[in-house]
Design goal:
The protein is mostly helical. Helix 1 runs antiparallel to helix 3 and helix 2 crosses helix 3. It is elongated and about 50 Å long. It starts with a helix and ends with a helix.
């Protein structure tokens, strides 16, 4: 079980960290390309790009928590993921 969990976490983080860094670097051009037209002006683009940056800061952690919670559920420990979720939301 430990080997499987470690392997899953490595695989997810191997994908999540470069994806979050890429989104952080390309946030302004992506938001401009996808949304900036009509009532969505440059100021709105800047605000959404900042929000995307903040989401990307927690991208890898969210995936790690998801995998770890599933591992605890597989071990029939439902209390630990709930407490971690409450602490993360607080």
């Amino acid at each position: 079980m430990r080997l499987s969990l470690a392997s899953s976490l490595r695989g997810v983080l191997l994908l999540a960290i470069p994806a979050s860094v890429g989104l952080m670097l390309l946030r302004q051009p992506l938001v401009t390309l996808l949304y900036q037209r009509g009532e969505f002006d440059a100021f709105s683009t800047q605000l959404v790009a900042w929000a995307l940056f903040m989401v990307c800061c927690w991208f890898d952690r969210a995936f790690a928590v998801e995998i770890t919670a599933r591992a605890f559920y597989a071990l029939h420990d439902t209390k630990t993921p709930v407490l971690v979720g409450i602490a993360a939301m607080g």
